[in-house]
Design a protein that fits this description.
By secondary structure, the protein is α/β, with parallel strands linked by helices. It is built from twelve helices and twelve strands. It has a five-stranded mixed beta sheet, with helices on both faces. Strands 10-7-11 form a three-stranded antiparallel beta sheet. Strands 1-2 form a two-stranded antiparallel ribbon. β1 and β2 form a beta hairpin. The termini are far apart.
């Protein structure tokens, strides 16, 4: 059993795919298969069950996984300690919502592209609950959350700021003529929303459903841009992060509705609780706080 085999095992175990593991490790798939077989022979156990086109960890594989992760992390730290003068390098896998990736992260990603060209940041689209699960399982190194809660089981977070939200409608929507929008008025109109699992959508839905006795139908669109287009076309109103609609509000293609939002969500950077942050992860956290926390603070001022 050597560290190369453990790195390969950890990657296959977190992705549950020999093909994807080979791609991310930049190995031939036959090499990945050979390393896993060699590791299984040295331990005298099967680490994966092969079920047709799918694989899953055996009980022995599940017991090995946390040890493999610790050893892989320590090996990375040892390499970093011996080349402290070198720039951060390698791959960081980061889970993030579309609204954060598209509207908050570009300046941060541009900074890393120019300042740390040897550090590859791989973004995985993921809703908050999925991101927390992936962090706990070691599938993501870091993640971004947008939640009302700031405490999450098995996950450590750093709050970057409160995410401003806005209810928007097309300029000719009947509700744009009102000086103040009531919750009851919103209950009477069609709402376009992100898919279930989005924190601000669930808070909005709970507010509109409160006291009605029955859930209200939401028209679900898959992406922020498709929601904005649906609202612009007059299909309904929507609650979205202000950053995602700022350009449309300025251009006049969308209008902000005067509804007093009774809740807030916090954008957070997260990692698995108890995990020793590598040099690369520490740099990413520090620069994220530098770029995004300052941006949120400026917006709140």
């Amino acid at each position: 059993m050597d560290i190369r085999q453990l790195v390969t095992f950890h990657k296959v175990a977190t992705l549950l795919s020999f093909t994807r593991a080979a791609s991310e490790l930049k190995y031939a798939q036959s090499s990945v298969t050979a390393q896993i077989k060699s590791l299984e022979l040295s331990l005298g156990v099967d680490l994966f069950d092969r079920l047709g086109g799918r694989i899953q960890l055996t009980e022995a594989g599940q017991r090995l996984l946390p040890y493999a992760e610790q050893m892989v992390t320590l090996a990375g730290e040892a390499r970093g300690a011996t080349r402290a003068s070198e720039e951060p390098s390698g791959v960081l896998t980061v889970g993030s919502m579309e609204s954060i990736t598209s509207y908050r992260m570009p300046p941060l990603l541009e900074f890393f592209h120019h300042r740390y060209p040897s550090l590859q940041i791989v973004l995985r689209p993921s809703l908050c609950a999925e991101t927390c699960h992936a962090l706990r399982q070691g599938m993501f190194d870091m993640g971004f959350l947008m939640e009302a809660e700031t405490q999450h089981p098995g996950v450590q977070t750093e709050v970057l700021g409160s995410e401003p939200l806005t209810v928007v409608a097309a300029p000719d929507h009947p509700l744009t003529r009102a000086e103040k929008i009531t919750t009851d008025a919103l209950r009477q109109t069609q709402v376009i929303s992100a898919e279930a699992g989005c924190a601000y959508r669930e808070l909005f839905e709970a507010e509109l459903n409160d006291g009605t006795g029955e859930p209200l139908p939401f028209l679900e669109f898959g992406t922020t841009e498709s929601i904005k287009r649906g609202v612009t076309a007059g299909l309904g109103v929507s609650l979205l992060p202000t950053a995602t609609v700022a350009d449309a509000l300025e251009a006049g293609t969308l209008v902000s509705l005067p509804w007093s939002i009774p809740f807030e969500v916090h954008t957070q950077i997260a990692w698995r609780r108890g995990k020793n942050l590598s040099r690369e992860m520490r740099v990413f956290v520090d620069q994220t706080i530098r770029f995004l926390a300052e941006e949120y603070a400026g917006a709140a001022a």
